[in-house]
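User: Structure please.
Assistant: Input sequence and predicted structure:
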Amino acid sequence: MNKTYAAWQNFGSSLQSARIAAQYSQQQLADLVGCHRSYITMLESGKRCPSVKMIRMLAVACPQMLQDQESLTYFEELARYHIYED
């Protein structure tokens, strides 16, 4: 498993935890950030990589994600530069 795939799985787990803490269903979160519920499912499972804009919108919708600013910045950098490292 490459490091980037593992990083996006970690992002997905963080997103899921933050969504649950905010008491949103996947559909409610999708409605808040303007995407389809299946996209949230794919993000939470680590199967999709969000854009920087989407990361920021998710962080605003799920404030628990903002608690770890260092990780959030790391994910933004991965998304910004499409870094795929082995």
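The first helix runs from residue 3 to 21.
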